[in-house]
Amino acid sequence: MSPVISVTDLTKRYRGGVTALDRVSFSLTENRIYGLLGRNGAGKTTLMQILTAQNFATSGEVRVFGEHPYENERVLARTSFIKESQTYPPVRVHHVLRAASLIHPGWDEEFAQQLVDDFRLPSRRNVRKLSRGMLSALGIIIGLASRAPLTFFDEPYLGLDAVARQIFYDRLLADYTEHPRTIVLSTHLIDEVSELIEHVLLIDAGRLLLDADAETLRGQVLTVSGPVASVDEFARTGTELHRVRLGGTARATVRGDFGPADHDRARTLGLALEASSLQDTVVRLTTATNGAAPAITGATSKEAHR
Amino acid sequence: MNRALTVARLQFVAWPFVVGWPWGILALSFFINLALFASIGDIDPAPVTGGLASIYIVMLVASTQTIMQDFPFTIGLGVSRRSFYLGNLLQFTTQAIGYAAVLYLLAVVEEATGGWGIDLTFFGLPFLLVDNPVLRYLAFAIPFLLLGFLGIAIALVFKRWGVNGILTLTTATIVGFGGLGVLATWRGWWPAIGGWFADQPGGALLVGYPALLALPLAAASYLIIRRATP
């Protein structure tokens, strides 16, 4: 099966010397939900803009549905890119939805109307008068109802309340199950979507830190706590990402290829063992990799207060 | 081409906004002029207003909005720059054809009613030089296209190169026209220039030259939009 997206050595340098993407390579296969994670300014939005031909790469190769997306209607007509920063002309909500329905060949009007009701969006209101959350809901409705074979959501939830966010996740999962497609979800609310994400891409400072199956990753990153000596002993079997010390005990996040044998060994060493959440994994991996000392100190003091 | 047609249709999704503004402002301008000159009574020479210009100015503003607002929105929905450009070209042309036809008819009505009963020239062309009906129609239509492309070109310079682009463009325009003005004054060319304009037929001034200006603007806009980011 050919990948939906393949990216090779993609680099983007902005004028002024900022490197937004630094030789990034990966590929995405059909009909999965990808989590594109990373800190602010990591390069997530730039990456999605280049994949949808809204921005230009400095160097490297990009293929979407096997073709270059730039000025390519065959690719663009199958793509939907919902971003937090999207602006709209000063027309009414139903005008915007009508416009989106004309552009997207797979548009489901009934689904769109149902979503308008779900999010309680006033369809006769001018988009300029929508609140931040309503504007986000409008983007989400377009992204879901367009049923594009490749859909990008770039932090689509700004200003949305917890109930509306849950509606988004529920509708996304339900519609994805019924109409499988490739979804790339870029988000900071990692805990909220960790059940949704099937594959994780983590980028930091323009570099790809992680490209892993979510289920596999879950068993790979463990948090162990107990006497310092035992923690030291266990941590040697993997890569230690993070550690908090409190007197004679320690709590460490360790990444490795752990199996049942390792779990048994941890118990023998008298260690408490738990799988790290996706959010913890992402935070630890990001801070461990770029050696951001202040971030680790901050985390330590926060942990110590618990 | 299909996608370009779709883009052209997009523009009419919110048609009350698109059609309402230019004609609403023109109607307002017309009725104010009508009321004003009707209350003044007989004037010599018969009043000629510049009110018709309002619809062309709205067109210029609307075309800059096309780039500032519709471009990021439409490209964001997933359309190529080429389709966006061609779609708007199509929409502008359709609008110019339709609007010019209405204005032409109103000018005919104006003539037939003796300037709305008070000898008012509102829709009639400022130059009575155009007699040929085809040229007269084009004299209404072509300026729409010229202003449309002018607005698009200027907005695209901003979209692609930002404030610096606009400042460079302004500086270049001032230096260019200012330099020509100085040159013409220094060499004593003004009478010759005035004579040249006076010698031009109305058809050339209202149709020929605007069309000649609109074409390079359209071509330049296409080249700029190909590398513009929403």
TrEMBL record, chain A:
Claim: RNA-binding is one of the keywords in the record = no
Which Pfam family, just one, is annotated for this protein?
ABC_tran
Renumbered to this chain, the signal peptide range is none
List GO molecular-function terms, semicolon-separated. Answer: ATP binding; ATP hydrolysis activity
* Keyword Metal-binding assigned: no
Q: Which key words tag this protein in UniProt?
A: ATP-binding, Nucleotide-binding
Q: Which PROSITE patterns match?
A: ABC_TRANSPORTER_2
What is the name attached to this protein's record?
Answer: ABC transporter ATP-binding protein
Q: What phylogenetic lineage does the species belong to?
A: Bacteria, Bacillati, Actinomycetota, Actinomycetes, Micromonosporales
UniProtKB/TrEMBL annotation, chain B:
Judging by the UniProt lineage, the source's domain of life is Bacteria
What protein name applies here? Answer: Uncharacterized protein
